[in-house]
Structures are given as C-alpha cells and as structure tokens.
C-alpha cells in the first residue's frame, strides 16, 4: 500500500511524515524541488517511480495577500497543479486526496458552512483554490477534497508563531476581532488524512467527495492570539504579554479581503468516517510546548 505526498515541506506535509509510522502503508513525501505539481512530466515520472495507490496533495500557494499580486503563480499552483494531478490519477487509476480551504466561501453566512453550501470566494487565493477543486471534480471520480482552516503547527510559518514573535518585540499588538473561524492544527489535519487513507484501503464502500475538517471551538483571530500568548507566557517563550488591541477588519487593512465568517462544520466527515473535530486549544498547547 503506497502513498505519495506532495508539498512535503508544508505544515501538513511535514506532519504526514511524522505520523505515517503509526499506519500500515508506505508513504513517500516529495517537496517542491523533488516534484513541481505544475509540471506534468515531473508528476508522470514520480508516479511511475513510486506507483502509489493514493496521492495526497498538500502542495499549494497559501500566501493570501501576496496572491493578489501574484495571481498567475497562485493560479498555476492552486488550479493547474491539481488539474494535472487529477489527469494523471485518472490515467493510472490512482485515488487523489486534495487539501483545500475555508476561503472558498464569502463569509456572509452566520452559521458554519457545510459542504453543500454555495461557494463564492472573495479573494484571489480562494478563487484559485475553488478552481482547483472544480478541475478535480470534472476529471476524477475517485477523489477526496478536504477543506480545512486557520492551520497552525510546529513546522513552517503560521499566525501564532508570528504573534509570539511580535510579542517579543512590541508593547502593543493589533489583532482583528470580527472575523470568525476554526483554528486547526496541522497535526490533526494530517491524522484525519491518514485515517481517510486507511479507510480507503480497508472499506469496501468508500464514499468519495468533499469534506470539511477543522478544530473547535469557533473563535476570532483576537481570541486565538490571546490564547496563544497566554500559553507562550506559561512556557516562558515570552517575558510578558503585550497589550492586545482588538480591531475591526475596516481598521486593519490587508491586500486581500477575508471572509467575516469562514467557520466550517465537520459533521459530514464525522458521520461518514468517524473522524471528530479536534480541540484546537489542547493542540495549541502541544505546539507551543514543543516550539523550544
């Protein structure tokens, strides 16, 4: 049972490698230098080399603001790349698990989004990720599209690491308090993907399609930052907690628009596969405790 992972140096790709030893299959993880998913020839060569039964695509252009200026690059990685993967998976009868985002929604809805809700991204990043999803759906039946949100982990850059670094330098930090979402640890996303992979290898009737997986409870960037800094103080990563000032999206301008509510419901994946939402607070404690 062979599994090929793209984007090995990303937060989730890194965690997939860490946790794969607990599962009964061979996992081969390739970073961008080893496999550029926008290169059809490179994909074909690596698929021929490893002959995987599943490809897990965690590669992606994830800089939300920079995507507004580099839309052609974001489109190549987030749309053209998944399309090429889907085409080769179809040719080789390979299943594809593709990581997507909460930013495919516009954020105007009050309650958490379910998989069947209408997509309507408000920034280039979300547009390119949605286009990638749609390309996969149009080409390959045997796929899982897994949407997640606000990912944090020990490897790579993320919001909480940025906040902790700012707390070492500044006396006051402004954080947006009117955007709602579900922080999700890379560790728990990787475990959910590996559990899906195991289900594919063991279940006779595997239900392909689109699923949401996130942490709980729903929170704001402001509350998320406060929780992270409280933990960082307990772990002696910062000498003190600076003043954290809640601000609105209107006050804190960014290059790209963000959805006001990008929270996702994970009920479908729990009911179908028994995969429960993670507790992001305990995952955050684990992450920050291991930053040293």
Instruction: Please describe the biggest sheet, giving its number of strands, its sense, and whether it closes into a barrel.
Output: 6 strands, parallel
**Total number of strands:** 14
In N-to-C order, the SSE pattern is: EHEHEHEHEEHEEEHEEEHEHEH
Structural class by SSE content = alpha/beta
Number of helices: 9
Share of helix, binned: 40-55%
Strand content: 15-25%
The backbone outline, from C-alpha atoms, is: globular
Overview features:
14 strands; two-stranded parallel sheet; globular; 292 residues; alpha/beta
Describe it for me?
It contains nine helices and 14 strands. It has 292 residues and is of the alpha/beta class. The chain has a six-stranded parallel beta sheet, with helices on both faces. The protein is globular.
Topology overview:
Elements: E1 2-6, H1 11-19, E2 26-30, H2 40-50, E3 54-57, H3 71-92, E4 95-101, H4 124-139, E5 143-148, E6 151-152, H5 159-169, E7 172-176, E8 180-181, E9 184-185, H6 186-202, E10 209-212, E11 215-216, E12 219-220, H7 221-234, E13 243-247, H8 267-273, E14 278-279, H9 280-289
Parallel strand pairs: 1-2, 1-3, 3-4, 4-5, 5-10, 6-9, 7-13, 11-14
Antiparallel strand pairs: 8-12
Helix pairs in contact: 1-6, 2-3, 3-4, 5-7, 7-9
């Amino acid at each position: 049972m062979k599994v090929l992972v793209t984007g090995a140096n990303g937060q989730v790709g890194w965690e997939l490698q860490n946790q794969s030893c607990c599962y009964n299959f061979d996992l081969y993880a390739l970073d961008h230098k080893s496999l550029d998913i926008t290169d059809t020839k490179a994909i074909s060569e690596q698929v021929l080399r490893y002959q995987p039964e599943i490809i897990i695509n965690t590669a992606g252009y994830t800089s939300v603001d920079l995507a507004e200026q580099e839309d052609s690059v974001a489109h190549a990685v987030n749309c053209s790349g998944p399309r090429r993967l889907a085409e080769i998976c179809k040719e080789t009868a390979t299943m594809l698990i593709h990581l997507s985002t909460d930013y495919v929604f516009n954020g105007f809805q009050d309650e958490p989004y379910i998989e069947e809700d209408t997509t309507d991204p408000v920034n280039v990043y979300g547009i390119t990720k949605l286009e990638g999803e749609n390309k996969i759906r149009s080409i390959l039946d045997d796929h899982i599209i897994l949407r997640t949100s606000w990912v944090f982990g020990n490897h790579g850059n993320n919001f909480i690491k940025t906040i902790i670094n700012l707390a070492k330098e500044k006396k006051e930090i402004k954080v947006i308090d009117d955007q709602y979402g579900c922080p999700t640890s890379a560790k728990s996303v990787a475990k959910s993907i590996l559990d899906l992979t195991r289900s594919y290898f063991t279940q006779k009737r595997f239900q392909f399609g689109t699923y949401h997986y996130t942490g709980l409870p729903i929170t704001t960037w402001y509350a998320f930052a406060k929780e992270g800094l409280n933990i960082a103080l307990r772990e002696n990563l910062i000498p003190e907690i600076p003043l954290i000032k809640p601000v609105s999206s209107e006050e804190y301008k960014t290059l790209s628009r963000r959805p006001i509510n990008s929270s996702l419901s994970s009920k479908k994946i729990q009911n179908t596969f028994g995969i429960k939402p993670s507790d992001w607070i305990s995952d955050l404690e684990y992450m920050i405790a291991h930053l040293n």
